[in-house]
Amino acid sequence: MNRTRVLVTGVFDVLHQEHSIFLKKAKKLGDYLIVGIESDLRVKKMKGGGRPVNNQETRIKNLLDLKIVDRAFVLPEKFSQKKDHIILIKKIKPHILAVSSHTLHLEKKRKIMDLVAGRLVVVHEHNPQASSTKIISSGFCQKLLD
After folding, report:
1. Residue 25 annotated among the catalytic residues of the structure
2. Is the overall model pTM greater than 0.70, yes or no?
3. Domain boundary assignment for the chain
4. Which tens digit of pLDDT belongs to each residue from 56-78?
5. How far apart are CA 113 and CA 104, in angstroms?
């Protein structure tokens, strides 16, 4: 059986409705949805102290609990260079890399997908009103923990 593999990557710290919508749209493109999440160390470097709110194990569990994610894994600690991305893409060989409209370096990612005869698909328009950072800064997460 040759299933269509769809790959998405991100932090997915505090899951919210936009994450769910994005993942559902990505899943519709194929049979097998794979999610790579940023490691706790990389999230701290990207987002600053106090992040992630949820550790990488919890974030993976939360994604799998959605029942639309078939596999979730932690991206390598060394994942900031084009060569790191190429290594991952060649290993997973996704048919589709699903991204949001605000994803950085779209053309570079499109060229990397060409290496495995895959394609990059923008599946979701970014909603600047919905983000884990906004949820966290609003204190909503803290209220949940209290």
Report:
1. no
2. yes
3. 5-145
4. 999 999 999 999 999 999 999 98
5. 15
